[in-house]
Amino acid sequence: MESIWIIYISLCLGILIGALNIIPKKIIVYNERLTLIGIFSLLFVMGLSIGSKKDIINNLHQVGLIGLMYAFFSVLFSIITVYLLTTVIFRRKNK
Amino acid sequence: MKMTIYILVLVIIGIFSGYFFLGNEVNNLDIYISVILNITIFSVGITLGLNKKIFKELKKTGKNLLLLPIGTIIGSLLGGLVTGILINHSLSLSLAIASGFGWYSISAVILTENAGVEIGSIAFITNVIREMMAFLFIPIVAKKLTPYTAICIGGATTMDTTLPLITKSTNEKYALVSFIHGGVLSFLVPVLVPFFASI
């Protein structure tokens, strides 16, 4: 897959430019606007292609249910893992 | 929260327009989409790079603070795996969806481009719901469990959208913890999502 490398290159270039602080503050303000415009247009196009695919539209409730499951289990296991990690480590520290 | 509502409305308008005005024909927008995606990722990168505060604070406060984001990552990916097994998704896709860590916009657009619109829309809904769960459960979990477990719910959103709520539900001391947690996870979203989607 080559598109992943293009994504990584774009990301690293951005981080580098941001970290080096080479863009004047006046222009940096427009960067957040650029992110917003990019995200808005991409999500609108995502909406368009969801709408044009009747099989997804007909299964929208299923997509919602799957999303709910992913979110629920991610949150649940995060809480359990973080609880175990932090309490075990802090207990060890207190000893 | 305001932004989430704007974006939800935008996506719904998109769905309606697509439903009524586009047929099932494949449109050749792909090349433009990937150009816009990479410009957007580049711009996100600049914002991340400007946030040197995270690394400075991490150096100052020590590596112990990394334990929290590590716990959130392990837990989120485990949750993704469990869901994937329950609904018969491939391992790599379920990990890719779970590694959105609540940052629905970026994870959805990356996955729409790399894994198709169905997985992209699942990632979108998953991570919108995660953000909503954060708003609902952070105050309760902070009270009944520990501040750390409350922070982990928010995933990548704890450096911006859910930060005020976390500060309010715990105390000032945890604002920095929450910011670093969200910052580390935000860095990892554009790295892990395409990675898992490509394996």
SS element count, helices of chain B: 10
Overall pLDDT of chain A: 88
The residue ranges of chain A in which pLDDT falls below 50 over 5 or more consecutive positions are: none
Mean pLDDT of chain B, as a whole number?
A: 90
Oligomer: heterodimer
Shape of chain A: flat
Question: What's the N-to-C terminus distance of chain B?
Answer: 33 Å
Instruction: Tell me the series of helices and strands of chain A, N- to C-terminal.
Output: HHHH
Q: Please indicate the count of domains of chain A.
A: 2
Q: Which structural category do the helix and sheet elements of chain A fall into?
A: mainly alpha
> Biggest β-sheet of chain A: count, sense, barrel?
none
Number of domains of chain B: 1
Biggest interface pair, residues each? A-B, 68 and 91 residues
Helical amount of chain B: over 70%
- Beta content of chain A: under 5%
Helix proportion of residues of chain A, in percent?
Answer: over 70%
Question: How is this structure best described in words?
Answer:
Chain A has 4 helices and no strands. By secondary structure, chain A is mainly alpha-helical. Chain A has 2 domains: 1-54; 59-95. Chain B is mostly helical and 199 residues long. Chain B has 10 helices and no strands. In chain B, helix 2 packs antiparallel against helix 6 (104-115). The longest helix of chain B has 28 residues, at 117-144. The interface between A and B is large, with 68 and 91 residues.
Key attributes of the depicted protein:
heterodimer; A: 95 residues; mainly alpha; 2 domains; B: 199 residues; 10 helices
